[in-house]
Amino acid sequence: MNSELSSIINYLEKDRGVNREVIIQAIESAIQQAARKSLDVSSDLRVVIDRKQLTIRAFDTAYVSDEDTGLGFISLRKARAICKDAQPGDSVEVEIPPAKLGRIAVQTARQMILQKIREAERKNVYDEYKDRVGDIVSGTVRQISHRDLILDLGKTEAILPAKERIPTEEYNIGDRIRAYVHRVQANTTGPSIMLSRACPEFVKTLFRLEVSEISDGIVEIMSVARDPGYRAKIAVKTLDEKVDPVGACVGLRGVRVRNIVRELNGEKIDIVRWSEDIKQYVTQALLPAKLEVITVDPNQTRAVRVLVAPDQLSLAIGRHGQNVRLTSKLLGWRVDIAKTGEPLSFELQRETAIAELAEVLDIPEATATTLVDNGFLTTDGIIEVEMPYLQEVTRLDEQVVREIWVAAQAVCGVKEEEEEQEEEAGE
Q1: What residues contact residue 406 under an 8 Å CB cut-off, 6+ apart?
Q2: What tens digit of pLDDT does each residue of 185-240 get?
Q3: Separation CA 232–CA 234 (nearest Å)
Q4: Contact present, 234 and 249 (Cβ < 8 Å)
Q5: DSSP characters for 212-258?
Q6: Which of 37, 93, 360, 427 gives the lowest tally of CB atoms within 10 Å of its CB?
Q7: Using CA atoms, how far apart are residues 6 and 51, in angstroms rounded to an integer?
Q8: By the 8 A CB rule, do 36 and 61 touch?
Q9: Which long-range contacts (CB under 8 A, 24 or more apart) does 244-247 make?
Q10: Sheet with 231-238, side-by-side order of all strands
């Protein structure tokens, strides 16, 4: 019995990962409960397994009386053989021969032991994987049910639901898969481990594993947007000005990003330089399209309008709107794109005029807004009036007005020179 018990404990401890003490305590508890149900013993029955020799001993409590009077009692003569100072009315522990436990108790104990060990295994698996949410694990496809994949992770199984699969991927039983641990729940039937290959966090974690600058905290991933299986955009920034965050993610000759694309079975990845300036951020996110005007919509929260040349419109929007849709997810802003030459709304005309004045005159947007709101939409309109009138209407500081007027004159002068040169070239 000792060698058999030792083999069982060693197997459960090494192959199933259950703690040795937990196994022994489960066996003690199971035998104890089984014996109480099948034998004439008191509720004080106690079972002890020696931790080294693995011998099983059972003890029951009996009260000392002058004679054996039945269950739960022991004669004074027998009691003093156990404890020489025993007196009538005292209680002593009496060892029960192992043979008395009987076959029924052993069979019942076996079922209880298996149940307790299964519970211990489930707890071990849950304790191991609850702290691994956010990690990537590898598993083998064991079963396919309605496009849901059941993966064998070694000590347990996990589910890769159909909605968390990359739509372009197909699997067969026995295939090896890497996936992101999305969620772990404790259920009565055991821990439920939900995996994902379609979530943005999967791409983020792949970059953290592949790019040492990200794992070291030199480069930070600010946002990820995905159309699983087709395209992803990832925005990165760096705290070290000497490091190019985009170059670090791409790697030497593109080796780093190529490894990630291979893991995602060909999904294209755009790496975008993050910026606090939303206009610069939009410009980077919509590459390779060339943008002409970017304006922040004053009537909506977190919304921008973008104007592009007609030949850049399809490139900016992307196939089936994919490029602009992923850009919107990446930024967390609504992005509206239109081509130049189309009739513009009053608000868009106003925002365009503000952006153009701020850029060509190198003035703050607030100052440009004041000019536009008072009817000065172009540099030509500014130099057509005298400086005192411009100051009176806009109520801007005299020095500011002077700088604006001088800058506008310079811009218009450059335009006139360019026009003259074009005329001469035409002649």
Answers
A1: none
A2: 776 666 678 899 999 999 999 999 999 999 888 999 999 999 998 999 999 999 88
A3: 7
A4: yes
A5: HHHHTTSEEEEEEEEETTTEEEEEEEES-TTS-HHHHHH-GGGHHHH
A6: 427
A7: 10
A8: no
A9: 245/213, 245/219, 245/220, 245/273, 245/274, 246/271, 246/272, 246/273
A10: 219-227, 231-238, 268-273
Q: What pairs with residue 186 in β-bridges?
A: 191
Cα(398)–Cα(143) distance, rounded to whole angstroms? 78
Residue in 281, 284, 290, 299 with CA at minimum distance from that of residue 348? 299
Cα–Cα nearest to 1, from 39, 48, 53, 45: 53
CB 95 within 8 A of CB 55: no
Q: 404: number of CA atoms within 13 Å, CB side?
A: 32
Q: Which pTM was predicted? A: 0.58
Q: Rounded distance, CA 20 to CA 23, Å? A: 5
Among 294, 284, 282, 298, CA closest to 366: 298
pLDDT tens digits for range 81-133: 666 666 676 777 677 776 666 565 566 656 666 676 666 666 767 766 777 88
How many Cα atoms are found within 13 Å in the side-chain-facing hemisphere of 34?
Answer: 22
**What distance in Å separates the CA atoms of residue 169 and residue 171, rounded to the nearest whole number?**
7
- Kind of pairing between the strands at 73-75 and 91-96: unpaired
- Single-letter amino acid code for the residue at 87: Q
- Cis? peptide before 228, omega within 30° of 0: no
Percent of the chain with pLDDT over 70: 76
Strands (E), 90-160: 91-96, 136-145, 148-152, 157-160
CA distance 141 to 139: 7
| DSSP for residue 343 | P
